[in-house]
Amino acid sequence: MANSGFVNIRRNVDDKFYRYRMPLLTTKIEGKGNGIKTVVPNMSDVARALSRPPTYPTKFFGCELGAQTSFDEKNDRYIVNGAHNADRLRELLDTFIDKFVLCKSCKNPETELVILKSGRNEDIIRDCKACGERTGVDMRHKLTTFILKNPPVKLKKGKRGDAADGVGGAADGDPANGEEGQNDPGAESDDELTKKIKAEAATLSKETAIAKEDWSADTSPEAVQQRIKALADNVAATSIGGDDDGSDDDANSPYSQLGTWIDDNDETDPAALSIAIYKKAEELGIAKKHKTLPVVVQALFDENVLTELPNYMALIKKLVTSEKHEKALLGGFERLVGIAFPDLLPAIPKILMTLYQGDVLEEEFVKQWGTHVSRKYVDKDTSKRVRKASEPFLKWLDEADDEDDDDDDE
Fold first, then answer.
1. For the segment 183-241, what is each residue's pLDDT rounded down to a tens digit?
2. Which domain of life is it from (predicted)?
3. Does position 55 have pLDDT exceeding 90, yes or no?
């Protein structure tokens, strides 16, 4: 269930469900003799997770190793001369993150670099979007000279007037006008995808085989029949308390305990696992908490989410009891698809359709969510990409409303 290809941005944080993650840095040795060099194939992906241009960490490696570096941004190649093993570069990346990414005050990576000029002097600071603190970097480091000569680039405001946070945001196929993918000749058109969604919508089941099962400890047929009504009444009567019992990013919180328990569970039957997860959440006192949803999504699903999701719809319906829960649920999928498995971005419309057809998401909420970028669960750029990917489903909703209005007019 866990994705070994991703690690916590703060690698000293031993929490599988830490909010901020990045791809594990990989290396490839090329050439021989005096021409030997180390290529970092996924530098762009790592840098994107850090909201920094890929040239910054690459140049940092060169400064620390006393080696020349080269960048071919058009072909996405970032090179450090000499042979350097991956572990060494990962250690240096940790140092780069500490010096040029993490907020010095709250240690949160949600920062952007800003250059402040005072007369002839220039200083580089980390502007933290999490706590609001502005903390300086060590201007004695050689990388600062490179940053001053190649300053951070902020995106211009898009159609909704929201500028991108972080630096280098216009790279890697994200146009500055916020209209990603509009000019990609290989991209599938909204009309074509909408047709596919409509065709597949008919096959999505609104209920699963366990929708009417009991969720208590005893799952025998006799106990199930005896407790269905009592448990249903109990669940309906349970009030939603505040989520003041720890963060889902805290390794010692009940949320992380639940995530680790799911991750380590060997149960292969979706029905049995769903019941066990709900029982465990109740045991930890978080079955009705909205923060439980992102943890369950991240721990339960992987790159096969489209085939896995229908099997766990009954569990999700039990956990989602308010609009706040709906938002947290989609926040979990933002993390799963936007960060852990970015190749799944095109699957967002089908995920939303499955949840909508399963009566988990309300139409008006989905429309509001789709047009409001949020940094609550992921960074702003990732949130934008997820919502951009959701547009075919939102378009389908609008078309369905138009058809209903036409029917009413007849």
1. 343 344 445 555 555 555 554 444 444 444 445 445 555 554 554 444 334 333 333 33
2. Eukaryota
3. yes
pLDDT in tens, 93-106: 999 999 999 999 88
Residue 156 maps to a domain: no
The answer as to whether 299 is a domain residue is yes
Within a domain: 271: yes
Answer for the pair 295, 248: CB distance below 8 angstroms, yes or no.
yes
pLDDT at 406: 52
CATH of the domain at 49: 3.30.30.170
In total, how many domains does the chain have?
Answer: 2
Domain-terminating residue out of 149, 180, 210:
149
243 lies in the same domain as 379: yes
Residue 235: which CATH number? 1.25.40.180
**Residue 183 in domain:** no
